[in-house]
Design a protein that fits this description.
globular; 426 residues; 12 strands; 33% helix; 14 helices; 10-stranded mixed beta sheet; alpha/beta; homodimer; two-stranded antiparallel ribbon
């Protein structure tokens, strides 16, 4: 954004700068920072548990995720080097609700680290990722962990419903009996009313995501489903059937971010967190001007594209928040992959299929197939993008020529959203 | 840290920088940023509800705190200008547990803002403040709100105990019946065993904080207590009596932070957030090497002093986390105001009394008298420092010649801690 005549720049500085990139480049970076960028942020490691019914509790799941993240760092990594950590969770599992972030870092070798929980319902670890990114850009930390965790399957059905329900509006929705399937069913009905779309379009989303997740070793529901089977699933909240709804999963995920000057210490192929954006909206549906657009997504995406210096058409793969199939349809529009009202057609025409359409949507299987452990979902999306951009996914799952990826993590029915853009190139 | 020969600096830049401070100063700031500081952060507004039994619910309490913060901005402030917000809370009050941060900003005119909850037990808003500070330093936001809130008095006694208890270790402490008074009682017993100190020293802390809080209009318990009365309070957890324990309060607090180049747009007397530090420790007491030191406080203080470029002896007033009187004694040592084992004597000799000792400790009355609405406490401490450094407290409460203040916010029994240093001078 700003350019420096580097002719005599170094003679300025006292004491001299001793940086891997050298004085001139560092000055250029600094001047860039006046605009958007200060320090660039590299993802050098990423790992997660299998999502699903996990046999371990909080400590064990977190340890597994962070260990996998550390093992993925090509040139080695020590957990004691972490300076800041941000852990997303709604309720951890309900047993240890306060100070749990510190409990988890303590039990994964990051003793003494500056750590906190970040909570924004199902967008918790998307915001943990944003805050970790800002921590590095702030110059206060060079090595930062962002992660997320949720233990859902220790809970009774009524407690699960409670912990899920408290992320919608309590006063106007939850206490009136509106659960999340109901919320998204209202959205779907309105979408079909406003645009040329039917439930069949949602079935296409479900079939695609099950197909994508089938070979993903960390996915919760690894089974392909036919169009007819998905279309005739039992009704959960009309028009949404079982195959429109993501499962309730346990899981933990973590990514390791470092400042630009350290990236090549850890790996020859970092994934750059090029941009980040976040936004919010009214919590209760009735306060929003439209049921079929998520303004939080729109503003988050706009900021993320701007900070990354890319546009929607540059994205090769996007992990989007398909807690219900209709949410993926809206996301393809709000993120700019499809025009307004054309998300249904986008799904129908297979535009999001791996290596077939214009952009691969939910190569991991998405929340629908990979699973949805609430607070672990956001950084779980980043794990998939990390692997895809480094060409390290299972055979058959690779998105061809994947250069730029995006993650889209939504809290509740759209009250909060965080979007990130990642690239193989800085 | 770095200096620039500004002789021909501006000719470098294309396009030119249009900043209030002008090109040369901005370049100097940028070069400073290579070390610790990127952008300096100014607090230009701060407000809170009265702590205690508040008649309003979450939305009303938050609106009151943010409105008071906005009204304290000398040259006016619009909530719609806020770009990022960080709200600390353990449980909000238990009714709306997910996405509540967005609900609160929505109801206080910050529509669409990038907002999240930050949770670290009773240190929640201390960490919200740190993350807000880093957000500005990251260059991603120029106007940021940090706040905290907790609604405790809507809860039954058993639920209060639950929400308080879940911030200690569930597995080894809470489920074994150890509550927070018990935790700190163990600490006090050990302290008396190791050092030349008795319960009388704690009584001095209680008497001082009640005296300091007596004229604080936002304090929960506004009554002076005599030494004899505080000494003979009924036993809560031996050796801690009622007068050693802070009350359970409702409350909300918020501060408005801006990037350096905007500070004088909002006020002629900003309070600079000069330094920030945070740390963590084992959650369960038995894992810590010492019961009478909080390593999280020590590392947080060390970082805060370093980033601020000051030492303990520079501090004029400190708001420390005296959830129990023994906690203030430990804090005076861990923050460097008293030598190891000398915190008891420090209290006994009145070293923390307003305008009498070496540093005023808890000019507000502290958690003991001002009150402790868990998540609201950290930024509530910052509100007091803001008022003290601007000489805007009630008559009789002013700390003389207050130039540098400190806040110290602890989560649980010391698993997490955030320390901040503030100054009238940048």
């Amino acid at each position: 954004m700003y350019e420096v005549d580097t002719g005599a720049a170094c003679s300025w500085l006292s004491p001299p700068i001793d940086e891997p990139y050298g004085c001139f480049d560092r000055l250029n970076q600094m001047l860039d920072s006046i605009g958007e960028r200060m320090v660039d942020v590299a993802m050098v490691g990423a790992g997660q548990t299998k999502f699903g019914n996990h046999p371990l509790g909080l400590k064990g799941m977190w340890a597994e995720a962070i260990e996998k993240a550390m093992l993925s760092v090509d040139h080695g990594f020590q957990s004691s080097d972490v300076e800041e950590a941000f852990i997303g969770s709604i309720a951890f599992g309900g047993s240890q609700l306060g100070n749990t972030a510190a409990l988890l870092t303590e039990h994964s070798g990051m003793e003494g680290v500056s750590v906190r929980r970040v909570e924004n319902a199902c967008a918790s670890s998307g915001f943990a990722l944003r805050d970790a990114w800002m921590a590095i850009k702030s110059g206060q930390a060079d090595i930062v962990v962002a992660g997320g965790i949720e233990k859902m399957n220790d809970l009774s059905t009524s407690r699960k419903r409670y912990w899920l329900g408290v992320s919608g509006d309590t006063e106007w929705e939850r206490l009136a009996g509106l659960t999340f399937p109901g919320t998204y069913a209202l959205t779907a009905r309105r979408y079909f009313h406003e645009f040329d779309s039917t439930h069949d379009d949602l079935v296409h989303v479900s079939v695609k995501n099950h197909m994508h997740g089938f070979e993903n070793e960390v996915a919760h529901l690894r089974k392909e489903v036919s169009f007819d089977k998905a279309k005739s699933g039992f009704m959960v909240a009309d028009p949404l059937t079982l195959y429109d709804c993501c499962p309730t999963s346990d899981g933990a995920s973590a990514v390791i971010l470092v400042a630009d000057h350290l990236a090549h210490k850890f790996t020859d192929t970092p994934v750059w967190v090029k941009g980040s954006g976040a936004g919010s909206d009214h919590l209760a549906l009735h306060d929003r001007p439209s049921l079929t657009q998520l303004r939080a997504t729109q503003s988050a995406a706009s900021k993320a594209y701007r900070t990354a210096g890319v546009s929607a058409s540059d994205i090769d793969l996007a992990e989007v928040h398909d807690c219900f199939t209709i949410a993926e349809v809206l996301a393809t529009e709000d993120l700019g992959f499809a025009g307004r009202g054309l998300g249904g057609a986008f799904a129908r025409e297979g535009e999001g299929r791996r290596n077939e359409g214009s952009v691969t949507i939910n190569a991991s299987g998405g929340l629908k197939s990979k699973g949805h452990p609430l607070g672990a979902t956001g950084t779980g999306q980043a794990v998939e993008v990390f692997k895809q951009l480094r060409h390290q996914v299972e055979p058959g799952r690779q998105v061809r020529d994947a250069e730029i990826g995006l993650t889209h993590n939504v809290g509740g029915s759209g009250a909060t959203c965080a979007v990130h853009v990642f690239g193989r190139q800085r």
